[in-house]
Design brief:
single chain, alpha/beta, Spore Coat Polysaccharide Biosynthesis Protein SpsA, Chain A, 11 helices, 16% strand
Length: 331
């Protein structure tokens, strides 16, 4: 049996479509728990109204003060009755086979404790298409390994017993900023088996402008400081993050420092040029892959990745300067 848990915050506009999708599953969940995280709009009112109107879908609405999505998911898990906990987000639309496909790996292999589903997008905006291709490249890597070490909560499943035994989500992450990766890494460190299920699809809206895309990357890099402080070995390799991206971020961090050497060694002016060339070279394999799928988007990819490098570098630098590696509140 499965409980679907969805943290919601000012999500009134998303709830009708979300619950309609969950009520149309080939394998209905035992229950759906909507956990309101202190919304300031009419999310709770809409949720309670829909829970009464949708016949055949057992919807429960829980409420808490604004403490972040990790705490909201934990509250939902505390009240869940299903043996399998399935998580998605309020702005996602599960395909009609989502629950069925998420449960298949658990039924097939009793040693599997976690399942990762997949994003899809029907958006036509160039940056949204780029975001989808970017994540599909990561899925391509995940398909090559029998077990993964990263599960994102947009389409996540855990055995409830294991979820509680391993401390649930750390609710000290104040926003959706790495609490899912933190739990995944804790589970992987114990050699617990998690798998990728590409057929368990949720539809999602990616950032549709370059500015929004780069803003998301900035904050992800910011909170990665805390994540890598806790799981330093994952800084070098995990099943989700491309190695090229990590090298590019490092080069982006070195770029402003490269100008300082000019005051000591005049020929040092070549250092920034070399760093830019290296950043572009690390972009080449992904650029070629994008071009095979979308030629025009592929032509823009080197510039997008170049800007992404510095968005990641700026976020990482801010996290370092803010003391995320030292703050005792985040252990």
């Amino acid at each position: 049996t499965a409980s679907v848990i969805v943290p919601v915050f000012n999500s009134a506009n998303h709830l009708p479509d979300l619950l309609a999708a969950l009520s149309n599953q080939t394998q209905p969940p035992q229950e759906v728990l909507l956990v309101d995280d202190g919304s300031t709009d009419d999310t709770v009112t809409v949720a309670k109204k829909l829970s009464q109107e949708l016949a055949g879908l057992n919807v429960r609405v829980l409420e808490q003060d604004h403490r972040g999505p990790g705490a909201a998911r934990n509250l939902g898990a505390d009240h869940a009755e299903g043996e399998i906990l399935l998580f998605t987000d309020s702005d996602c639309l599960p395909s009609e086979v989502w629950v069925e496909k998420m449960l298949e790996p658990f039924a097939r292999d009793g040693s599997v404790i976690g399942v990762q589903g997949a994003y899809l997008s029907n958006q036509t905006a160039a940056m949204a298409r780029f975001g989808q291709i970017e994540i599909e490249d990561r899925y391509r890597r995940m398909k090559k390994t029998p077990y993964i070490d990263f599960i994102g909560t947009y389409a996540a499943g855990y055995r409830k017993e294991v979820f509680f035994e391993n401390g649930k989500f750390d609710d000290r992450f104040p926003i959706a900023s790495g609490e899912d990766a933190d739990l995944s890494f804790r589970l992987a460190s114990k050699n617990l088996r998690m798998v990728f299920q590409p057929d368990a699809v949720v539809y999602h809206r990616h950032p549709d402008s370059l500015f929004r895309y780069l803003k998301v990357k900035f904050w992800r890099a910011y909170w990665r400081n805390l994540l890598y402080r806790r799981h330093s070995s994952r800084m070098f390799k995990d099943s989700y993050t491309p190695q090229a991206l990590k090298f590019q971020t490092l080069l982006g961090l070195l770029f402003p420092l490269s100008f300082l050497g000019y005051f000591v060694v005049p020929m040092w002016y070549l250092a920034p040029i070399i760093l830019v060339v290296l950043i572009l070279l690390f972009s080449l394999p992904f650029t070629l892959w994008v071009m095979r799928r979308d030629l025009l988007l592929g032509l823009a990819t080197p510039l997008i990745l170049f800007l992404r490098t510095f968005a990641f570098a700026a976020g990482a630098a801010r996290g370092l300067l803010k003391g995320l590696w030292l703050n005792e509140d985040y252990l």
